[in-house]
Amino acid sequence: MPGSAFLPDPAIAAEATAEAGARPEKPSRIRGDDGWLDISGFLDEAYGFIPLVIPITEPAVGVGGVAALAFIDKPPGEAAAGFGRPNISVVGALGTDNGTRGAFAGDMRHWAGDRVKTLVGVIRASVNLDFYGAGRDPVLRDHPNSYNLDTTALVAQARYRVGSSQAWVGLGYAVAATKVRFNAPVDADVQPSREHESRVGGLLPIVSFDSRDNVFTPNAGTYLELSAGLFDKALGSDTNFQRVNLTGIQYWPVSRDLTVGVIASSVASAGDVPFYLRPYIALRGVPVMRYQGDMTAQAEAEVRWRFWQRFSLVAFAGAGGSRNEGARNRATQNVTAGGVGFRYEIARKYGLHLGIDAATGPAGPAYYVQFGSAWARP
Question: What is the value of pTM for the model shown?
Answer without folding.
Answer: 0.86
